[in-house]
Design brief:
- The complex is a heterodimer of chains A (about 750) and B (about 290).
- Chain A is an alpha+beta fold.
- Chain A is built from 20 helices and 27 strands.
- Chain A folds into three domains: about 10-130 and about 195-275, Aldehyde Oxidoreductase, domain 3; about 370-450 and about 610-755, Aldehyde Oxidoreductase, domain 4 (2-Layer Sandwich); about 460-605, 2-Layer Sandwich (Aldehyde Oxidoreductase, domain 4), CATH 3.30.365.10.
- Helix content of chain A is about 30%, strand content about 25%.
- The longest helix of chain A is centred in the last third of the chain and has 28 residues, at about 530-555.
- With about 290 residues, chain B is α+β, with helices and mostly antiparallel strands.
- Chain B folds into three domains: about 5-50, Uridine Diphospho-n-acetylenolpyruvylglucosamine Reductase, domain 2, CATH 3.30.43.10; about 55-175, Uridine Diphospho-n-acetylenolpyruvylglucosamine Reductase, domain 3 (2-Layer Sandwich); about 180-290, CO dehydrogenase flavoprotein, C-terminal domain (Enolase-like, domain 1, 2-Layer Sandwich), CATH 3.30.390.50.
- Chain B has a five-stranded antiparallel beta sheet. Chain B has a four-stranded antiparallel beta sheet with strand order 11-12-13-14.
- The longest helix of chain B is centred in the last third of the chain and has 22 residues, at about 265-290.
- The chains are: A alpha+beta (about 750), B alpha+beta (about 290).
- Chains A and B meet through helix 4 and helix 20 of A and helix 13 of B.
């Protein structure tokens, strides 16, 4: 059995030696190059684009402007399509836009012989704008009289939903309640995957083939079809290895535009390689959300009533839209169950880059607000913060009627125990209790709530194909994608055990090709190991049945008496090896009397979901005069059920923690208030943390096998990024007594807060 | 793919001067870690370049017979940090340039480029200011020397005419002998960053280590060009080694600087750093000199 073992990644050697091929490696050198002209105003209309000078440049092949593209609004979110029109993603995109809605919007594109020519031509385009007032903040954007971005959405409100339990208004009239209120602000950040988005397209026989760095090939195929107004079957999407995505590539990015331009140059190969500066602004970002939390508590800390308001900055286009704020609201409701609860969630258009999916999907924001607020409550009531959480956090047996999730195990307490031990919580909380001086230390923690996959909000299904080779090895194909996280390795491990062959006998086909690969919606929602498990097991059962049926004919033993274990056909009664799977497969294929190619394929629709819970503990040293918080120690503890590959799980948590540290301490995309222009859309000025900014990243697991899961596993992809920022914030709170209610907690923010609190 | 009109490879300093004279619009390229970025941004798009990178005569560090340390401009940051002459006599310079960017940049980036592009945040510049470095410049009419303080003219502008080449950075014996220095780079992260404020302090103590005989301090990003803080130096010179002197030194520095507010940092925040870094750098320089504080 190989599930549970830290086998080497199936792609490890190819990736470290540089053999693995990514999108750019696959583009023929003859490709025409596309460069996009982005708007230099935040809001307004393009009145004209003068192409005269650009067209004179030798090597310019074609120039498309916002006046040329079809008026076919399309959605971009990487959600499974819904056949219910009311549940479909908002279609508010055009390939190029006359109505410019943010600084950096796409207004024209040049196809040229090479990159330098294309860049020169973009610079030579002359644009006339009609400028309109713009708005960058969602709360301001909701006000009457604010600039309107999309006609159909009054006051720029893309969606407003309300969660309501009990009777908040009545509950707060109870005498003697303590009211604790706070505003918590999270920033716009970007995914910063190593490989920028890149795609290329060519057309043959009326079919457009797009090769793209995407997480969701089957979804992007559909969106390209919608955007170009062509049958979806006329689009073929190929996804090779990709250099990360973190949700940015869970969206149709420039594949539709690239495909469109290809059709304009006679199907010639055109390549669109996005720069880092464009990635920051003209792809997707994480929703900046402002939270307003009011809690009404009795002296013992019990939460009688709670109100939450969330204002989510959608940016200029809908992309994933309200799903992010809604997921956060759900987490706030469930992590500390409150009898009287009200939560208003607003997702609001503004003249900033479109916000989409990003690792954690609303939960890093919600956890920062909720876990900061929880420490504020504990502090104000004089209750030890862990003790407070233990009393009021989601209990064992908690049931959510919507998702049907059950909190089966005491995961949170078990995770907290491990975190406490590593950070030496009890001793350090005491030691750091009453410090003075310039340099102070503190420890803090935060718990998190997560779930797995998207059911029941959207479709969850996974398809799998297995094809047996003559030597007893098999090809494994899934629509679910390898995006650097190690999915291919985990799938191979599960398949090896499910079929009954050695790990080495599984040849996973990493590349998805929508003409060939079975349907799957791709890498997002921390879903793949969970959902693929069902389809792999089911498909393996079909293949095994066929193999054992053939073995029955070959070895004349009843199927009930034979088994396939480790690549051998075994007689169960005495353990005798009757033959190898390779011998059987060869015979099956070449038999002159009974030839059959043994393959299996099936779809499994998943109608369950699972909680994935855990915590983070952090120790910081705050240099008050220099306004710097240095992270000394940090640990994440997760219960993601049974680990398929412990080493890969640990690596995945490390990556998430790194993202969480940057989110808490340094990362923020800034915009000029006067123009809406992005100020720091490059990796120098955008302070992505480096390994020099990290202490040793410690990871531990609690393994309670998830009962709903085919392999006992559940979400791990996104959860690691969710609890780090509030844990660091709460550590700074202990060190300095200063509550920092906005991230990133960078020196500028600490300087302002330390001054306000009289520390400087 | 860079939008480059032409690249001329110089084989000697004289050859470089000739090429620059022949191509009045050409820019000098050494390691390329600044020029190529500007070219990619479009600021230098279509430019002609004269590369001096292959002129080995412009590489390396040596000591003249009179004890002057001669740093040739193409010496990379990583070579400066590992150079025995630097380590023995002005270790702080090696430490300072070891904070530039990341390892790849420190291997390709040169101290000549770092100073000649005239930016206030250059990690080498404040230490060179604090050691009264002298810039040696060669042009068609011969060689001239310029104190580094006069070399910086304004933001991004230095006293280097189009067809001149920096050939050495000198540090005289009297500038380093008996001095120990410390550089603090304050940035938003611990690598791959540009200073929010840089502060380089060095001092010389009396034999009993109780008196500061001389103290020098220079900042990067405290103004449009790297700058010394003469009031601070005056406040420490001849004073006893004690916390009061350090306080007075740091407070006095505030009179000399003029940082600006930008989205990268507010003036108030930078002023706070001016004082804090002066204190910490002086204390460390005193400790390195055997003083107790």
């Amino acid at each position: 059995m190989v599930v549970g073992k830290s086998v080497k990644r199936v792609d490890a050697f190819d990736k470290v030696t540089g053999r693995a091929r990514y999108t750019d490696d696959m583009a023929d050198r003859s490709a025409y190059i596309v460069k996009i002209l982005h708007s230099t105003i935040a809001h307004g209309y393009v009145k004209s684009i003068d192409k005269t000078e650009a067209e004179k440049i030798d090597g310019v092949i074609y120039i498309a402007t916002c006046f040329d593209v079809p008026n076919l609004p399309f959605p971009t979110a990487g959600h499974p399509w819904s056949t219910d029109p009311h549940h479909q993603d908002i279609a508010d995109r055009l390939l190029l836009n006359r109505h410019v809605r943010y600084y950096g919007d796409d207004i024209a594109a040049v196809v040229a012989r090479d990159e330098v020519t294309a860049t020169r031509a973009v610079r030579a385009l002359k644009v006339e704008y009609e400028e309109l007032p713009f708005v960058l903040d969602p709360i301001q954007s909701m006000q009457d009289g604010a600039p309107q971005l999309h006609e159909e959405f009054q006051n720029n409100i893309l969606a407003h939903t309300r969660l309501s339990d009990g009777n908040y208004a009545e509950a707060i009239t109870e005498e003697g309640l303590i009211r604790i209120e706070g505003w918590y602000r999270t920033p716009t950040v970007q995914h910063c995957h190593i490989e920028n988005h890149i795609c290329f397209a060519s057309a043959e026989s009326g079919k457009i083939t797009v090769v793209s760095s995407t997480q969701i090939p089957h979804i992007v195929r559909r969106v390209v079809g919608q955007a170009l107004g062509i049958p979806w079957g006329n689009v073929r999407l190929i996804k090779p290895y990709i250099g990360g995505g973190f949700g940015n590539k869970q969206d149709a990015l420039y594949e539709p535009l690239c495909a469109y331009l290809c059709t304009k140059v006679g199907g010639r190969l055109v390549k669109l390689d996005v720069s880092r500066e464009e990635t920051f602004v003209s792809n997707r970002v994480r929703h900046a959300i402002q939270f307003h939390l009011i809690s009404w508590l009795r002296k013992d800390g019990s939460i009688v009533a709670r109100k939450a308001e969330c204002f989510s900055n959608q940016g200029a286009y809908a992309s994933h839209g309200h799903g992010i704020a809604a997921k956060g609201g759900g987490a706030i409701r469930q992590l500390y169950p409150t009898p009287n609860f009200e939560c208003d969630m607003y997702t609001v258009y503004t003249n900033t880059p479109a916000s989409g999916a990003m690792r954690g999907y609303g939960i890093p924001q919600a956890m920062f607000a909720l876990e900061s607020h929880t420490d504020d409550i504990a502090k104000q009531l004089g209750i030890e913060p862990i003790e407070y959480r233990r009393k009021y956090m989601m209990p064992v047996g908690y049931f959510d009627p919507f998702s049907k999730n059950v909190n089966y195990f005491d995961s949170l307490n078990q995770c907290i125990e491990k975190g406490k031990a590593y950070i030496d919580w009890d001793n350090k909380r005491k030691a750091y209790a009453n410090q003075t001086g310039d340099i102070r230390r503190g420890v803090g923690m935060a718990i998190f709530w997560y779930n797995t996959a998207v059911w029941p909000i959207s479709l969850e299904s996974c398809s799998c194909r297995m094809v047996l080779n003559q030597d007893g090895t098999l090809q494994l194909q899934l629509g679910e994608t390898e995006i650097g996280q190690g999915a291919d390795t985990a799938f191979s491990q599960m398949a090896a055990d499910a079929v009954g062959v050695p790990f080495e006998a599984v040849h996973i086909i990493s590349t998805q090709d929508t003409d060939i690969t079975p349907f799957g919606t791709g890498a997002y929602a921390s879903r793949q190991t969970y959902v693929a498990g069902f389809a792999i097991k089911q498909t393996a059962d079909i293949l095994r049945e066929k193999i054992l049926a053939y073995a029955h004919k070959l070895y004349r033993m009843p199927v009930a008496l034979i088994d396939l274990i480790g690549g051998n056909i075994i007689r169960k009664s005495d353990g005798q090896v009757l033959g190898t799977l390779g011998e059987l497969a060869t015979e099956a294929l070449y038999s002159l009397t009974d030839s059959i190619h043994l393959t299996a394929e099936s779809t499994y629709q998943i109608k369950s979901n699972a909680y994935s819970l855990g915590c983070c503990f952090a120790e910081v040293e705050v240099d008050i005069p220099l306004c710097k918080a240095k992270l000394l120690k940090i640990i994440n503890v997760h219960d993601c059920g049974t680990l398929i590959n412990p080493a890969l799980a640990e690596a995945q948590v490390h990556g998430g923690m790194s993202m969480g540290i940057g989110y808490g301490l340094s990362e923020q995309l800034l915009f000029d208030e006067r123009t809406g222009r992005p100020l720091n859309n490059n990796l120098l000025d955008y302070k992505l943390s480096t390994m020099m900014d990290h202490p040793d990243l410690k990871t531990e697991f609690v393994e309670n096998p998830e009962p709903t899961s085919a392999y006992g596993t559940k979400a791990l992809g996104e959860p690691p990024a969710t609890p780090c920022a509030p844990a660091i914030r709460n550590a700074i709170l202990q060190a300095t007594g200063v509550a920092i209610n906005q991230i990133p907690m960078n020196p500028h923010v600490l300087f302002a807060r330390f001054r306000e609190e009289g520390l400087l | 793919m860079y939008d480059m009109k032409a690249l001329y490879e110089a084989t000697s300093v004289e050859d470089a001067i000739r090429l620059l004279t022949e191509h009045p619009d050409a820019k000098i390229i050494a390691g390329g870690s600044d020029v190529l970025i500007k070219m990619r941004e479009g600021k230098l798009a279509g430019a002609e370049l004269v590369s001096i990178y292959k002129i080995d005569a412009l590489r390396g560090i040596s000591m003249d017979p009179d004890g002057t340390i001669r740093i040739r401009p193409l010496t990379s940051f990583s070579h400066i940090t590992r150079d025995p002459i630097i380590q023995q006599h002005i270790n702080v310079l090696g430490e300072a340039v070891d904070m530039v960017g990341g390892p790849q940049i420190r291997n390709i980036g040169t101290i000549g480029g770092n100073t000649c592009n005239g930016v206030t945040s250059a990690d080498s510049a404040s230490t060179l200011h604090a050691y009264d470095a002298i810039m040696v410049i060669q042009g068609p009419d011969g060689v001239r020397e310029k104190p580094i303080r006069e070399f910086y003219l304004s933001a991004g502008k230095v006293d280097l005419r189009h067809n001149e080449v920096l050939t050495a950075i000198l540090i005289r014996k009297e500038s380093y002998e008996g001095f120990q220095g410390h550089y603090i780079k304050y940035a938003m992260r611990n690598a791959m960053d540009i200073a929010t404020l840089g502060c380089s302090v060095n001092c010389k103590l009396s034999e009993d280590r109780k008196t500061i005989l001389d103290a020098r301090i220079a900042y990067g990003v405290a103004g449009p060009v790297p700058m010394r803080a003469p009031s601070a130096e005056a406040a420490a010179k001849g004073q006893p080694v004690c916390p009061e002197t350090v306080e007075a030194f740091a407070k006095a520095a505030l009179n000399d600087v003029n940082p600006r507010t930008s989205w990268r940092a507010s003036k108030e925040f930078r002023m706070n750093l001016v004082e804090q870094l002066a204190k910490r750098a002086l204390k460390e320089a005193i400790r390195l000199n055997g003083g107790e504080i």
